[in-house]
Amino acid sequence: MSAGWQPEPPRPARRGRFPSPTTGRAAAGSPGRSSGPAAGPSGLRSVEQGRARRWLAGRLADPARQRNGAEAARPEAVPPELAAEAVRRHLPVVTPQEAAAQMQAVTDDLTGLGELAGPARTPGVTDVLVDGSGTIWTDGLEGLQATGQRVEAGDARRLAVRLLAQGGRRLDEGQPFGDAQVTGARVHAILPPLAAGGTQISVRLAAPEPPGLGSLARGWPHGEIWLTALQHLVQSRANLLISGATGSGKTTLLSALLAEVPADERIITVEDTRELRPRHGHVVSLQARSGNAEGTGGVPLSELVRQALRMRPDRLIVGECRGSEVADFLAAMNTGHRGAAGTLHANSAADVPARLFAMGALAGLGAEALALQASSAVDAVLHLGRTDGGRHPVELAVVDRSGPREGTFRVVPAWTLAGGALMPGPGRDLLEAQSGATGRRGRGRHVLGS
């Protein structure tokens, strides 16, 4: 039972004010909510919960409390004693279990995922989605499934605006889409009329504990071979690109790889929305910032990559290459910053060069300049896939530097998963040969060569 709650004396029942304990309460694992019309005109929130939430919001914003050094400055931090007091004042509860459930519901509505918090706590769920009709969906171990719960149109919009504001991003008619990191989850939202039918919300949940590389490999086909190859890439300080479709596990694997980096190395991550959470003792995280309502104050990824180069990185990590920042990233890898890594969307490892050419064009790089930069900077490409067997590597390719360098950039497969069999390719020998040419970290500086 959370601290601070004390049962209050029985009160005379007031007709029409409090719902019966058997109606309008919990639904589908989300305390204090209903998935049907019984919730009333306020959608999924009761009048009492609204009062409790407003009282709690006022207490968290109390200037006197903030002057006393309380944790009110951190949006996700709701002291349990305040949540308990909000429930005691405004919600009819009889047992400690009811009080705990209402405390959780009020906290979710104020600083958490709101109506999506219940589905998000379901074991095995990796994504929670709201479509234009307000239907809540989940994705995870069991695939994409409808929960049977719905969010009213007005509630969905208010939830999306509040979540992005909590992550420091705007969402309104002038900026009708965006994403933010909220309570450890990446939240993306887009408003009508861009989204037909209603507000669309997509929540990508982070694992409670980031899995290690060995733990991930145990669930992969031919996991031991993949584990050995990936550890080799990290130890030899190869520059690595991880490709794959949305939801293929690129960020999860990159976090696991960074946990393998030696403890005396400094990792700097650059992301549009922070998702990487490597279990490493020295990580500096930089996050891009969108502009304000006047269109000023934005800080793009490309600027953060340039700033990261001045912060003495041992490993420079770009969470996802999407556009012009690829030019600065490739330039960084060509200045001796070995062991760099990044992710990007691509259909296969063989398609990564085409994706880099497209992104280089956004930065004003011609095909020949991009090919020269990429062929010198990138050592290997790991492609991930999502099959009935889960998310796992399907191809590892290395950059072929054996031919003429002018205007060419191609990769050759080292390992390919085909029909359940893991097939070696010509790039396997190139991968082993490259280990002697990758840079090793000197004391306080970066050097190329062994």
Describe the structure.
By secondary structure, the chain is an alpha/beta fold. The protein contains 14 helices and 15 strands. A hairpin with a 2-residue loop joins β14 and β15 (421-424).
* Beginning-to-end CA distance, first to last residue: 58 Å
Strand content: 15-25%
Percent helix among the residues?
A: 25-40%
Tally the helices.
14
When the domains are counted, the total is 3
Question: What is the CATH third-level topology name of the largest domain?
Answer: Rossmann fold
For the largest sheet, list the strands in their spatial order: 9-8-10-11-7-12-13-14-15
What summary fits the major beta sheet?
9 strands, mixed
CATH homologous superfamily title of the largest domain = P-loop containing nucleotide triphosphate hydrolases
Name the assembly state. single chain
Shape descriptor reads globular
Summarize model confidence as the mean pLDDT: 79
The ordered string of helix (H) and strand (E) elements is HHHHHEEEHEEEHHEHEEHEHEHHEEEEH
How many runs of DSSP E, i.e. beta strands?
15
Structural class: alpha/beta
Low-confidence stretches: 1-5, 7-45, 69-75, 439-450
CATH architecture verdict of the largest domain: 3-Layer(aba) Sandwich
The CATH class of the largest domain: Alpha Beta
| Rg over CA atoms | 25 Å
Brief characterization of the structure:
By secondary structure, the chain is α/β, with parallel strands linked by helices. The chain is 31% helix and 20% strand.
